[in-house]
Amino acid sequence: MSVKDKVIEIIAEQAVLEPSDVTMESTLEDLGIDSLGLVESIFAIEEAFDISVPFNANEPEQSDFDISSVASIVAGIEKLVAEQAA
Amino acid sequence: MKRVVITGAGTINALGRGVPATFEAMREGRCGIGELEFRDVERLAIRIGGQVKGYEPEETFNRQQLALYDRFTQFALIAAREAIAQAGLEFHGDLADRSGVVLGTSGGGLTTQDENYRSVYEEGKNRVHPFVVPKLMNNAAASHVSMEFNLRGPTFTVATACASSNHAMGLAFQMVRSGACPAMITGGSESMLCFGGVKAWEGLRVMSKDACRPFSANRNGMVQGEGAGVYVFEDYDHAKGRGAEILAEVVGFAMTSDAADIVMPSKQGAARAISGALRDGRIDRDEVGYINAHGTGTAANDKTECAAVADAMGPQADRLMISATKSMHGHCIGGTGAVELLACIMALRDGVIAPTINHEEFDAECALDVVPNEAREADVSVVLSNAFAFGGLNAVLALRKV
User: Fold this and answer.
1) pLDDT (tens digit, 9 = 90+) per residue, B317-342?
2) What residue ranges define each of the domains in chain B, with the CATH number in brackets?
3) Is the complex ipTM higher than 0.90?
């Protein structure tokens, strides 16, 4: 499974949706994921890829990690996974 | 209805051991937050906290006592000894039978749990010390205070996360005010600064890695502290009758529940608790000169709290001072309201308002007088102390100068 598919699967599970309902353009707000849901998703992603995601719930905009859409989250995770492998 | 006064205060926290040392640190705007020191700290992402440093338990307690006293119990006893010595009370006969202890804590003997789980899970040991249970239980601190001072009336522990000690002190206030108890020992104690304690908080991703900056636009989270605050709440006539020195009068208390979210705060719930405390104490809101904020330094709390104060206080919100001393001693969780009540007593007794330190950038969502960075002299006659806990549980106390 690609990084993208796995991330979408995790987000879909959190949002109680089918992966096919989660598009790359979706925002977490569109999907009905609140701040606790976000923290839980990031934990699940960290566990799935054995990476550490630099995210502080107090300053989501200023974190090094962009959560503005599913696409930006996937891109961020792909980068972290690549760095992990390097 | 009896009037309720505070006749003794005691503390140990990151700013100092004892009330005079803590007052001095608050006046100077000193920061008690620093590098955490305990086993496995290198495995944490969050490595700062308001830890009590330079404290050697063996200098205060003997070996038999330490076998039974978790760190949170030690803190409670140290603070209770100071408070009861200041009050000058001895508990015998009817006074002993009707006076008790209500203390707040959230984690109880968390350090004891952490050490013993490590021993059985990580080190694979199959035997633990016989006193693990009496040492870790949440009511251990209250019980040991009752035993040391012969307090034989109502004694229990309140656990409402970050509001625990405000709830505890509010209940003690109501018990003295109703006439049920001539005196109550109350406050709270917490010691969660161990590997498991901080690791759990790390998971929530609301902790700052560098500093606690309440109300500052660049705030990035809370910083944990530890410690205890303990007080003697006494019937005014009883205190007067024996010529006791009165530190302040407790005049109002209210508690509310947001009934909304397990972690996100609610403006309405907080505002209802503030208004409720004023109503309970028959306080005109224009009399309130200072509020000790819950002020955790998280994005969510500080803006919600300021909005709640603006709602509940009306035009007085722009005239009063509000500061967050967690910037100095950290968030002492179940003991925090008790440590913070010291800032309220200092405001009423000494006319000194403790500052919100680390305030670096104005935040339009926290546009109140937050007493940035430097203590201020001011004559105030009524003060409030806010506590808004995870779980949506709010508790606000009101104190008046005597």
Assistant:
1) 999 999 999 999 999 999 999 999 99
2) 4-241 (3.40.47.10), 251-400 (3.40.47.10)
3) no
Q: Which pTM does this prediction carry?
A: 0.95
**Which residue from A39, A52, A56 is facing B221, i.e. has the nearest CB?**
A56
Amino acid letter, A76: G
Q: Which CATH code, of 3.30.379.10, 3.40.50.720, 1.10.1200.10, 2.60.120.280, is assigned to A3-85? A: 1.10.1200.10
B241-to-B172, B246, B341 alpha-carbon distances in Å = 20, 12, 25
Q: How far apart are CA B88 and CA A79, in angstroms?
A: 65
Report pLDDT digits (tens) over B145-183.
999 999 999 999 999 999 999 999 999 999 999 999 999
Catalytic residue check, B162: yes
Active site residue B181: no
Q: Do A36 and B262 touch (CB under 8 A)?
A: yes
A58/B contact by beta carbon, under 8 A = yes
